[in-house]
Write a structure and sequence with these properties.
This protein is α/β, with parallel strands linked by helices and 346 residues long. Helix content is 49%, strand content 7%. A six-stranded parallel beta sheet has the order 3-2-1-5-4-6, with helices on both faces. Helix 7 links the parallel strand 1 and strand 2. The longest helix is centred in the first third of the chain and has 29 residues. 23% of the residues are buried. InterPro entries: MT_TRM10-typ_sf. This is Protein CBG18804.
């Protein structure tokens, strides 16, 4: 603005106005002067006013800006939901909330915390009513595998239980066609803690909502025509959305490289149509290997699928960001704890 002042009289008047603004800054503070946002246009207006008019004008601008600031703060406060309210909504929905007056990470080592988790799981199961979905694991080939593979799959069964137990929309888990010999029974007693409990507890009682392990066939749980059978070798992809009459999914513990223990073989034996999860259609990464996904990760995909998302969206929601914190925590906790005590010994 000073560059536009040319005549000596204008320069003298400019210095006077600038001095008044400097006085305003000294009285009300530099932040107040900055909040006025005086540009060349306002300078021109101030230069044409008498000193008393300038004073009234500046006071009115200050008052107007202050009222606007207070109004914006009020609107922000109204629109911003309190964190405590958000936590209460999460807690009411059945989620674990690590906050004051809710749940504390310190409680994670105590039986009270585990009891709360048990109560939450039972409530989350019952509140679904007729909408409760089934996640069925076919174990027909488990007895034929090596010791290493049996340990690998039984650990997956426990991890599936752990992840499902803390979900706000859990599945009803069933392990069917389970025919255990002495070797498999020995491995299962070490790894399936929800079924046998930790060795440190002699009077272990199985939780009534723990997964069911049965030698019976799939249809003993849910009729075959109401289930989706999954096989990596299937020639059909899953429907984009879940058909209305379907209430569950079947995953076979198999080694699909061998026809004798392939999920496709199991589907042929049961005379059902298998479906393939369209990973390659959704995930473009060359490093992604569908066969590396574990049961608990597949359960998360189908949880979103049965919740109403398309299968592509359900996969994409979990692509490269499977929340492995719970599984990782369980593994670390079980390694550190004596006798592999689980986080939630039921």
């Amino acid at each position: 603005m000073y560059a536009k002042v040319r005549r000596p009289g204008q320069k003298k008047h400019f210095v006077k106005v600038a001095s008044e603004l400097e006085l305003l800054k000294d009285v009300y503070g530099a932040e107040t002067l900055e909040s006025l946002k005086i540009n060349d246009e306002i300078w021109g207006v101030l230069m044409e006013m008498a000193w008393d008019e300038r004073y009234i004008y500046l006071m009115e601008i200050m008052d107007f800006r202050e009222k606007n600031r207070e109004k914006n703060l009020e609107n922000l406060a109204e629109n911003r939901e309190l964190i405590s309210s958000q936590n209460l909504k999460l807690w009411s929905a059945g989620n674990m909330v690590y906050a004051r007056h809710f749940h504390s990470l310190v409680d994670i080592y105590g039986p009270e915390f585990r009891q709360k988790i048990d109560n939450f799981h039972g409530r989350n199961l019952l509140k679904q009513g007729e909408n409760l979905k089934h996640f069925i694991v076919d174990c027909r080939f488990l007895r034929d595998f090596s010791v290493k593979t049996q340990a690998f799959y039984t650990n997956q069964m426990q991890s599936l239980h752990d992840d499902n137990w803390t979900s706000s929309t859990p599945f009803e888990l069933n392990f069917v066609n389970y025919q255990a010999d002495q070797q498999l029974s020995s491995i299962a007693k070490k790894n399936l803690l929800f079924q046998y409990g930790p060795p440190s507890i002699s009077n272990f009682k199985r939780h009534p909502f723990a997964p069911q392990i049965t030698p019976r066939r799939v249809e003993s749980v849910v009729p075959k025509d109401r289930l989706l059978y999954i096989s990596p070798r299937a020639t059909r992809f899953l429907p984009d959305t879940v058909p209305a009459d379907l209430t569950g999914v079947v995953i076979c513990l198999s080694q699909d490289a061998s026809p004798a223990t392939s999920s496709q073989t199991a589907c042929i034996a049961d005379r059902v149509q298998p479906y393939q999860i369209p990973f390659k259609r959704v995930i473009r990464s060359t490093s992604f290997r569908p066969e590396r996904l574990q049961l608990w990760q597949l359960a998360r995909i189908f949880r979103g699928y049965f919740a109403g998302n398309t299968i592509d969206v359900s996969i994409r929601m979990n692509d490269n960001k499977f929340n492995i914190f719970i599984d990782f925590f369980f593994r670390i906790f079980r390694i550190k704890a004596p006798f592999k005590r689980p986080l939630y010994p039921h």
